[in-house]
């Protein structure tokens, strides 16, 4: 059976399995990159790498707004909700990518010195070029998700992950140092080129037009990009926010960044990867918007409870044995950070439901409220570890409330 065999608009168990398998590979590759960097760089060096990893995560996370809007537009067109394709999402993505790269390069003298402690020029160049490529990557993912082409969707995810780990492994084996891991961070941004070359289905998807004009598409994508950017601050760009509110992070910051990254990855990597599935599911279930949240939210909470227990019990040992004696964190910290990851995962779910309902403003306000709240909480006069937990655990609750209130106000279809 093909990906679309169940008919337009159907999010099948097979699609979830395909994307789930690709997510597992991507997660393992992500862990491998972090492992190699932590082993190769001392905590202070890993802190520098972690900030760039977070900076690219922040920028590429914002680009996921293109995935969300493209998926929604394609899904509604396939479902028969609209007609008259007039916009090429890939063409829009090229323009957005070029503009984003120029803005990063032109504005870098204002912020690069405050964010990148070393290799600043290389970091800015890679960040700009990597983001331009990732705009195409996420738009292509959105097209494939909207068309139920989950095998190709998963293959594009895996291409991204494998390119990253391949460059990281080369850096580890050949001793390229910090610069090699910076290259590894953005290496996956050319994965879409490989897919276009290898897959006729992907090439056909790239030529697809969606209903509505370019301005309409950009308006919806703009809200999604703004909100995705705010979400990326908490999900991937948190090291940047932490440095901005803490100054020199040093070795302690490297440990906290690694702990935050490792405790959230089991939940947030799959959820981020499955944005296409989630939005398609919520579009299909638009007659029962809030009810459609119950099952995925219950699954996330149940998985989170298990994760908190495991992180508290075994996390310190795994951190020390896996990454070296310099990386020390107690079980309470790792357990609380895992609980914070559950809160952000629930915010991700409610955000996907808001996007599916075309509540772009509420989606953006929810994520921005959570981000601002977390940033303010990071400014509290507390120890680095304590304020990190407080910010990541409490900030998302405000965003969840905003999303749920907006979803509750709209009438069912």
How would you describe the overall organization of this protein?
The chain is mainly α and about 425 residues long. It has one domain (about 15-410). Helices cover about 80% and strands about 0% of the residues. It is built from 16 helices and two strands. The longest helix is centred in the N-terminal third of the chain and has 36 residues, at about 45-80. The chain is globular, with a radius of gyration of 20 Å.
Features of this protein?
413 residues; mainly alpha; two-stranded antiparallel sheet; 2 strands; globular
Structural class: mainly alpha
Chain-averaged pLDDT: 83
The end-to-end span amounts to 31 Å
- Helix tally equals 16
**Strand content range:** under 5%
Number of strands: 2
Q: Secondary-structure element sequence?
A: HHEHHHHHHEHHHHHHHH
Q: Profile the largest sheet.
A: 2 strands, antiparallel
The number of distinct structural domains comes to 1
Strand order of the largest sheet: 1-2
From the alpha carbons, calculate the radius of gyration and give it in angstroms. Answer: 20 Å
Quick one: overall form? globular
Low-pLDDT regions: 1-10
Helix content: over 70%
């Amino acid at each position: 059976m093909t990906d679309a065999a169940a008919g337009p608009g159907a999010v099948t168990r097979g699609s979830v399995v395909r994307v789930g398998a690709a997510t597992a590979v991507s997660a393992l590759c992500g862990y491998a990159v972090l492992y190699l960097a932590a082993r190769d760089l001392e905590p202070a060096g890993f802190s520098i790498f972690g900030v760039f990893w977070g900076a690219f995560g922040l920028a590429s996370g914002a680009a996921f707004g293109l995935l969300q809007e493209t998926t929604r537009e394609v899904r509604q067109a396939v479902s028969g909700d609209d007609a008259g394709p007039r916009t090429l999402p890939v063409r829009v993505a090229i323009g957005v990518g070029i503009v984003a790269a120029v803005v990063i390069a032109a504005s870098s003298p204002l912020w690069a010195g405050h964010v990148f402690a070393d290799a600043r020029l290389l970091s800015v160049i890679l960040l700009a070029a990597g983001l331009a490529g990732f705009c195409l990557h996420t738009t292509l993912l959105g097209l494939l998700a909207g068309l139920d082409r989950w095998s190709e969707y998963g293959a594009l995810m895996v291409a991204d992950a494998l390119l990253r780990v391949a460059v990281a492994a080369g850096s580890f084996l050949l001793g390229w140092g910090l610069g090699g891991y910076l290259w590894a961070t953005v290496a996956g941004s050319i994965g879409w080129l490989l897919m276009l070359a290898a897959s006729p289905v992907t090439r056909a998807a790239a030529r697809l037009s969606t209903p509505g004009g370019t301005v309409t598409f950009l308006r919806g994508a703009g809200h999604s990009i703004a909100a995705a950017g705010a979400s990326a601050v908490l999900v991937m760009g948190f090291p940047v926010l932490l440095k901005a509110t803490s100054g020199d992070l040093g070795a302690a910051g490297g440990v906290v960044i690694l702990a935050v990254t490792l405790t959230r990855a089991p939940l947030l990597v799959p959820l981020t990867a499955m944005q296409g599935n989630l939005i398609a599911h919520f579009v299909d279930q638009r007659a029962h918007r809030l009810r459609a949240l119950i099952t995925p939210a219950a699954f996330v909470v149940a998985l989170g409870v298990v994760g908190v227990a495991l992180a508290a019990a075994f996390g310190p040992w795994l951190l020390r044995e896996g990454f070296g004696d310099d990386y020390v964190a107690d079980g309470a910290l790792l357990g609380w950070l895992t609980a914070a990851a559950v809160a952000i995962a629930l915010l991700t779910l409610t955000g996907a439901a808001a996007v599916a309902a075309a509540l772009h403003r509420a989606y953006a306000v929810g994520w921005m409220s959570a981000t601002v709240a977390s940033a303010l909480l990071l400014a509290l006069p507390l120890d680095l570890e304590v304020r990190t937990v407080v910010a990541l655990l409490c900030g998302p609750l405000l965003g969840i409330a905003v999303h749920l209130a907006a979803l509750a106000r709209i009438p069912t279809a």
